[in-house]
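Notes on consecutive records. When two proteins share a document, each keeps its own sequence and its own token line. Never mix them. Below: protein one.
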Amino acid sequence: METKAVERSPGLIWPALFFGAAVLSLVVGFAVATPMPDLWTVLAFGVLFAFAENIDFEIPSGAGQSAGFMIVVASMVVFAIEGTPLGAVLVGLIGSLFIPHVLDRDWRKLLCNAGANALAIAVGTAVLLAFPESWLEGVPLLLVSATLAAVVAFMVNATCIGLSIAIAQHRPPRDVLLTLLPGQWLIYPFAVLGAGLGWLELHAGPIPLVLTITPILVGRQAFVSYMRAHEADEAALTTLVQALEAKDSYTAGHAERVAAYARFMGEHLGLRGRALEQLRRAALMHDIGKLIVPNQLLNKPGRLTAEEYERVRLHEDVTVELLGRITFLAPVAPIAIGVYAGPDEDERTHGMIERHIVAVADAYDAMTSTRAYRRALPQDVAFMELRANAGTQFHPACVEALIAALERRDLHHGAGYEAPERAAEWAVPPPDTGPGSAGLGDFAADTHPR
């Protein structure tokens, strides 16, 4: 609940002064009108709130949200029931001490954050006090009233922050608010948890509260670390795919399509969770070794010579070697490439069905895409090729899984469904038929792997 995204700007001086005056008025007004809250309870909530705010992070969608919100809701519940709303406002002020702003001596942001938090919490607490006292005594109705109060507090906070950002960056307030409001969906679980924590503090004191919330914050921080590592891995994956497509623009989109087909098959065959994610990464990286293959071989219109064929085949070894040297991709190296060798293949590869999924997905996309050596084949021909080579070149279960998954989704590819520009962008128009029709195969046959 604060404006860490706002750049240092002279434009913040007026919002800061306004919020500073508002905070002073709130503190003085509540101090005169209501009893003083228990300072130890204020400190307990305030320190927890400040800690949570200082370990805040951005989720992949770009919205920022901290676990501090549930501490805010808990403090609203406690101080509303005790009749000391000033305590909730003070918690908001303590939680506004964002360490980077303090170290930078950026008083404008500190005042903006403090004002936004204090106003939001004051309004939220007032909403909570407006409910019948009986609502705050039973857990079910307390959860409902606290959640509604939390929504109001969030909206007030978002409005205050949005106006501050709009003034500082000279942007229309509506545009800024539209970027903040999508985060509202994240507040509901925090609101419910906060109401429960407030009830716990009232009935068991601050020590159980701290003991309960600490594992939540620690677990959340572990999730933050995981998300950041995952984002870094995904960025590296994207860079590698872009490097391959920059080298061979004629196969742009191939890796993503193979990954999509592989996912269809994996889901059909019962893969879930981590196995499905590893399959996606393997499919995206299955051709990364082609970075060492000259483009004139990858896009040669005619049949490859034996020497050229062996040189192209080297990309499989390079793929395994390269992936094995990248920590987060090493687990997918054994399944990124592979050729089915018969009914006993699963036994020899310890049941790694994923490698056969990638092989079928790769072959299907090769057949249903226009390449230098051949225009895209019709989908029914691609299905016929896959089935004709099932049991020798392709894993039968994977072939049937792909066909069933595509038919269930009513997806069509190949001749008649390929984007017209894909067939028209070649310097030398590809023939209707040619070597490499199945995308994989052995050199002695009429098909060459590309």
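Protein two starts on the next line and is unrelated to protein one.
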Amino acid sequence: MTNREVISQVRGTHKLFADAIINDRVILAEVRTSAHTLINQKTNQRKLWNTDTLFTPIDCLEMETVSLGECCGYSSDMKVSRSKLTIPSIVEGNYQYLIQGVYNVGVESSYKYTPLSRFLNLLKLGLQTNDTYYWIHGNRLYVSSPYAEVVKLVASFEGDVPYDLLYPECDCAGSKKNPCISRLDEQFKCPSILIGPVITLTSQRLLSSYFKIPVDHTSNNKDDQTNIK
């Protein structure tokens, strides 16, 4: 289902939404907020992590070698890899970012997530490990190995992923292998089983925020009874 189709379904829930005062961009933002709320409930229960409809892959994220001290003020000569470009905000759950995985494109291996503070503690304690870690800092992706040239990042992002990250060769004129399309025609990142609850929650939020119509919170969310793996 595309963003445009989801917006259309939200507009169809109440005649007030046909009013042009609420444009598609506003509705899409509200839909995403509702989706993040419901998705977080499920991922915090360790559900949905294996679905392809939630995460967006950045297949070729170029990296560069930098000093570890450059990213965190930590006094060290150690070198690490950092994404050349900043990445959009990633949805955060109760325990960590909603990142399905970070992979070394060249050898098809995966890295382990750790917060930067924990990685620095490993260094201070002098613990030896064969694992390679990644973390997010300053809107950039870091990998503890200095040899990561290109990585694949698969994550749930809060908003649109820039075209220069999704399609490095795209000129937005449709003449390249991966032509840019309207944001409204992109896939709406949400598991199909949550689409109905997301539309309902968005409709309630819009009625409450823009028309001051009180929302009935007494009804049960049927999706809460759904067993999602």
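For the record: The mean pLDDT is 85.
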